[in-house]
């Protein structure tokens, strides 16, 4: 599976030699693609976006700010980036190694935090919170504060038993959640009453 | 479905889906026979009265009614066909918490002994009147719940009974779905059923 890195690029130079272009241990360059800030795990075909906002869909018409972490599996490298999809198409990515999580990453995260504020305006959370959340995500890559699975998310509907429903409401509800069976009930070749119950 | 996916140990509280080893199941068949306790010279006796809506009323020629007439409004003791067998609690747990006088139970019939063609139909839940139950060790052979045979019992009938096992949440959902199909002859999608959760 080809790993997609964070789609972070200056729109004027989509394929240029940008500072966040990373290389794998095999020397293969990742092709950066715009607007694909997703975490891709090679073992599955499901993509998840880890972020701090509720909406990570990359719609250029919707402005949103979120940070995402790209784990390049088997390479033990991570890319951290901030994306503002308001149309500026300017953001950054920075790679770091999980093994240096505590020390070198601390300084690294500080730099990322400052740069993200520079590019995208003031972030709504303090740096410490940003760092804590990031470390938590890295230590438990399969968990996140918010996992966006728009297509798979299911909303549990709770019946409001305090609400008075009219006769028509109830009748309509049955029509909406069910339909007459199309298959005839299959008759049995025997009558159960003719057989003992024990 | 495997037995371990279908069954679970019983809870401390009674639940919908609990299976009881032996409880009475009633099937009222004609004629409707009222039983009255009457005092006679040598003590008390139980006198049957065959009720018919078209029969002459009390005091009229040919009447065979009790002297003070029938009192179905308040209730009468009647003769009924009864079988003692495995049964499943259909009353919802929320209702059990609130109702101290009624428990709805369904008869559980053994699948063994019936024609094999019928067994396959029941196993596939293609006959809407029944709900297939896989075997549970040596305690319960392959069986099926008979929705046609539902009895209302006073909870006292359940006090000294043996609950052998209960249904898992998924098995209860399918039970509810099958019962819905039996009552309505309509199909409801499992996804819709799963989406609805009623808080007690």
Explain how this protein is built.
The complex is a heterodimer of chains A (198) and B (200). Chain A has 198 residues and is an alpha+beta fold. Chain A is 21% helix and 18% strand. Chain A has a three-stranded antiparallel beta sheet, with no helix packed on it. Chain A has a three-stranded antiparallel beta sheet with strand order 3-4-5. In chain A, a hairpin with a 4-residue loop joins strand 3 (65-72) and strand 4 (77-84). Chain A starts with 38 loop residues before the first strand and ends in an 18-residue tail after the last strand. Chain B has a seven-stranded antiparallel beta sheet. In chain B, strands 3-4 form a two-stranded antiparallel sheet. In chain B, 20% of the residues lie in helices and 36% in strands. Chain B is built from five helices and eleven strands. Chain B is elongated and about 65 Å long. In chain B, strand 3 and strand 4 (43-51) form a beta hairpin. The mean pLDDT of chain B is 90. Chain B is of the alpha+beta class and 200 residues long.
Question: What does the secondary structure layout of this molecule look like, with pairings?
Answer:
The complex is a heterodimer of chains A (198) and B (200).
Chain A: E1 39-40, E2 47-50, E3 65-72, E4 77-84, E5 92-97, H1 103-120, H2 127-139, E6 147-148, E7 157-158, H3 167-177, E8 178-180
Antiparallel strand pairs in A: 1-2, 2-6, 3-4, 4-5
Chain B: H1 3-6, E1 7-8, E2 19-27, E3 32-40, E4 43-51, E5 81-89, H2 93-98, E6 103-110, H3 116-123, E7 130-133, E8 143-153, E9 163-167, H4 169-184, E10 186-188, H5 190-195, E11 196-197
> Sheet with the most strands of chain B?
7 strands, antiparallel
3D shape of chain B: elongated
Q: How far apart are the first and last residues' alpha carbons of chain A, in Å?
A: 59 Å
Q: Spatial order of the strands in the main sheet of chain B?
A: 1-9-2-5-6-8-7
Give the assembly state of these chains: heterodimer
* Helix content, binned percent of chain A: 10-25%
Structural class of chain B: alpha+beta
Give me the count of strands of chain A. Answer: 8
SSE run of chain B: HEEEEEHEHEEEHEHE
Count the helices of chain B. How many? 5
Structural class of chain A: alpha+beta
